[in-house]
Design goal:
Blueprint (H helix, E strand, L loop, with lengths): L15 H15 L8 H16 L9 H6 L1 H4 L15 H9 L6 H8 L3 E3 L5 E3 L8 E5 L11 E2 L4 E2 L1 E5 L5 E5 L2 H6 L2 H8 L27
Parallel strand pairs: 3-6
Antiparallel strand pairs: 1-2, 4-5, 6-7
């Protein structure tokens, strides 16, 4: 400066404290959608929200209002280095959410609200925790022979099981898979086996082996 005349202008890197304050202000004003959410981090947040619904005294709240009001505590440590939200990675966001858990709760998260359910053939099927109750969609043939219903919360909560046709279309929603096999499966078989003759439709589904395309059919 020469008096009131500016002779030279130079960008100044903000201090870490100033950058952190700006980032937190932006998140409070414009919402958490500014964060680098991915399918994986959204599913993690949905799992945590489910556990908070069933045990609010044990699991932290992860709704927008709760997260925005506690930005300093859960996200602040991960914003110390970045000077823009673009510098925050999805992996850091995931770790920030997990850091809200009490010591020893991480194994409980995977035990009570696993991200996926494994079919008898080993397929990992994602569980939708945004639904109430949590939901699972799986093709019917891959569940043949299964005489127990998929559950979460340490086996205490049946999932809303969406049974799918070979084309991936919904057939029926049930919270009692064994009851479905012994009940309305006969009508489903009668209706669909003509449409999908290359797929197995055993008369006794509980005595049949699970199947998916590429595996030999039982005779």
């Amino acid at each position: 400066m020469l008096g009131a005349l500016g002779l030279q202008r130079r960008a100044r890197r903000p201090t870490a404290e100033a950058a952190l304050a700006c980032l937190e202000q932006a998140l409070r004003q414009h919402g958490l959608d500014l964060l680098p959410w991915t399918d994986q981090t959204r599913r993690l947040r949905e799992r945590l929200a489910f556990l908070h619904r069933v045990a609010p005294d044990d699991w932290p709240a992860v709704d927008d209002a709760s997260l925005q009001s506690t930005l300093d505590a859960w996200l602040g440590p991960w914003l110390q280095g970045p000077t823009g939200l673009a510098d925050l990675t999805p992996a850091q966001l995931e770790q920030a959410l997990l850091a809200r858990l009490a010591p020893g709760q991480r194994p409980d998260l995977d035990r009570l609200a696993p991200p996926c359910w494994t079919t008898p053939l080993g397929t990992q099927v994602p569980i939708d925790y945004s639904a109430v109750p949590p939901a699972l969609a799986c093709r019917l043939q891959e569940l043949l022979g299964l005489d127990r219903h998929p559950t979460v919360q340490n086996g205490s909560l049946p999932l809303a099981l969406h049974l799918l046709s070979p084309a991936g279309r919904p057939i029926q929603v049930t919270a009692d898979l064994p009851g479905f096999w012994r009940g309305s499966y006969a009508e489903v078989r009668k209706e669909l086996r003509g449409r999908y003759p290359k797929h197995p439709w055993p008369e006794d589904p509980l005595q049949a082996a699970p199947w998916r395309p590429g595996l030999p059919r039982q005779r």
